[in-house]
Every structure is written in C-alpha cells, then in structure tokens.
UniProtKB/TrEMBL annotation:
The record marks 153, 202 as: Could be important to modulate the pK values of the two catalytic cysteine residues. The keyword Magnesium does not apply. Its EC number is 5.1.1.7. Pathway: Amino-acid biosynthesis; L-lysine biosynthesis via DAP pathway; DL-2,6-diaminopimelate from LL-2,6-diaminopimelate: step 1/1. This is Diaminopimelate epimerase. Its main location: cytoplasm. It is found in: Cytoplasm. GO terms for molecular function: diaminopimelate epimerase activity. The active site is at 77, 77 (proton donor), 211 (proton acceptor). Catalyzes the stereoinversion of LL-2,6-diaminopimelate (L,L-DAP) to meso-diaminopimelate (meso-DAP), a precursor of L-lysine and an essential component of the bacterial peptidoglycan. The keyword rRNA processing does not apply.
Length: 273
C-alpha cells in the first residue's frame, strides 16, 4: 500500500543561514506557529534558522512568508529571499511580495543572487521603538544604532566582534523594552571603509551564521556613522555578504545553496501541525 502523502520541502542556506522552504503555490498555506517550532527543532524535526513558505503571487511572481525556529514570524529575511529567488527564478529577475512590501531579486553573471531589500527604516516608530529617541545613538549601554529593514535591528559597533560573547549579550538586547517587538542584534567591527566584520544574535532564532537583513542594517548604520562607504563587504561567521545602499534601496548579494529535498511524513505533520 502506498504511504499517505506527506509534505515536501527543501533545505537551503545562504552563507550558513539555513532554511526549510515549503512551496505552497497553488495549495493552501500549511505553516502554523506550532508546525514552525516543531520543524525548527534540530533533534525532533528538520532544523532551520528560518522557514520560508512560498505562495502564489497576485501582482508579483511569488509571495513569501518567514518564520523563526521558535515559531514567531519574521517580517523580512534577506538570505531566505535570495535562496528562494535562486530556487524559483526562471528569468533574470523576480518580484516577491513580503510583509515588508514588494522586493526585486536579480541573478548576477557569477550566479549569485541579489535582492533589493528596500529603503532602510530610520524613524523610531517605523523600526519600531517604544518611544522617540536618536535612532543612530540609542540610549543603551554601548550606544548601538537602530535600523529597520522590514524587521528591527540593534547594531553595536565594537572594537572586536570576534570577542563578543553572543549568548551573554544577545538575549538582553533582543528583549530590551525599547524594542516592543523585540529585535535582532548585530555586533560589528570595522576592518576597512568598505569592509566590516559582523556577528549576529537573531530574534527568535539565537546565534546564526549569517543574517542578510542584519548585514543591510549594519551597513546602513555604519555609513550613517561615517565609518564606511555605501558599498561594503561583511564577513559573517558563515561567509561573506555584500551590501550596496543605492538610491532605490539596500541591495544584498551573496551565495545560495540548495542542500536537499525531503518529504515530511503525513503522521509527523498531523502530530505537530
Ligand atoms: N536571517 C534573516 C533575518 C531573520 C530575522 C528574524 N530573526 C526576525 O525575527 O526578524 C535574514 O537573512 O535577513
């Protein structure tokens, strides 16, 4: 007898920031907070930093929803956007509707995928913060900068990002009351005016090897602080990303990898959905 149909997915990563991708084009969306949390469990599920669910586009080629491994929603995910674009793109570019708005991805001649993450959000109420402050110099220890990229970021500039104890410092900043929806937390140090070292503690996912929207937020904050040019390379724990803050938005470029496809068993989905 044939086994009952399960749920197909594929596993991808961008610079070590890893994703489960579910393609729900033409079918009903399946992800619930409980399913995302169960699937994100690296022992009992598949494991991922973010889950990306593809839906059919209405006025764009596709729509994308993002979830963190703790079951919470992520408004933006630069690396997953690049990975999914790589997966579904048939021409040179792709339009994607996300919670943030419409994003455009492009394939470069070297095979890497770039996405325009849109303009940065620099006003306190857009990021969002709990009240009006100088977003470039937050009234927190270490004077980090707040930048929104469709999700909130708190960027600390430090002497040596390598030396930062992420599990000790990340959770406190993630849950600081200044960020009513919590925040992603980046630690960056300057290597050269076009080169940064960055490490990240992500909201809802903890330490990840790379964060595309975090790289964008860090590049924007570094430029506004007068440290860097508009186009920078960022060394993350899992690889390099390029960010170019242009007139039409913040472009993120980097590698993508398709690791495997799989099929969740129907029984597991039923027990965990
Ligand atoms: N890794 C993702 C960002 C996930 C952000 C998520 N942790 C949130 O709650 O906003 C990226 O490449 O942009």
């Amino acid at each position: 007898m044939d086994a009952p149909p399960g749920l197909a997915f594929c596993k991808m990563h961008g610079a070590g920031n890893d994703f489960v991708v579910i393609d729900s084009r033409g079918t009903a969306p399946v992800t619930t907070p409980a399913l995302a949390r169960a699937l994100g469990d690296r022992n009992r599920g598949v494991g991922f930093d973010q889950l990306a669910e593809i839906r059919s586009g209405v006025d764009t080629d596709i729509e994308l929803d993002f979830w963190n491994s703790d079951g919470s929603r992520a408004g933006a995910c630069g690396n997953a956007t690049r990975c999914v674009a790589d997966l579904v793109m048939t021409g040179p570019s792709l339009t994607i509707r996300t919670a943030r708005g419409i994003l455009r991805a492009q394939r470069l001649e070297d095979g890497r995928v770039s996405v325009n993450m849109g303009p940065p959000q620099l006003d306190w109420d857009q990021i969002p913060l709990s009240h009006s402050v100088d977003t470039l110099n937050l009234p927190l220890q270490g004077t980090p900068s707040a930048v929104g990229m469709g999700n909130p970021h708190c960027v600390f500039f430090v002497e040596d990002a390598e030396a930062v104890d992420l599990p000790a410092l990340g959770p406190g900043a993630e849950t600081d009351p200044l960020y009513p929806q919590k925040t992603n937390v980046e630690f960056a140090s300057l290597i050269a005016p076009d080169h940064l070292r960055m490490r990240v503690w992500e909201r809802g996912a903890g330490i990840t090897l790379a964060c595309g929207s975090g790289a964008c937020a860090t590049a924007v904050a570094a430029h506004l602080r007068g440290l860097t040019t508009r186009k920078v390379t960022l060394d993350l724990d899992g690889g390099q990303l390029q960010v170019d803050w242009r007139e039409d938005g913040v472009w993120l470029t980097g590698p993508t990898a398709h690791v495997f496809t799989g099929q969740l068993s129907a029984a597991w989905v039923a027990a965990n959905g």
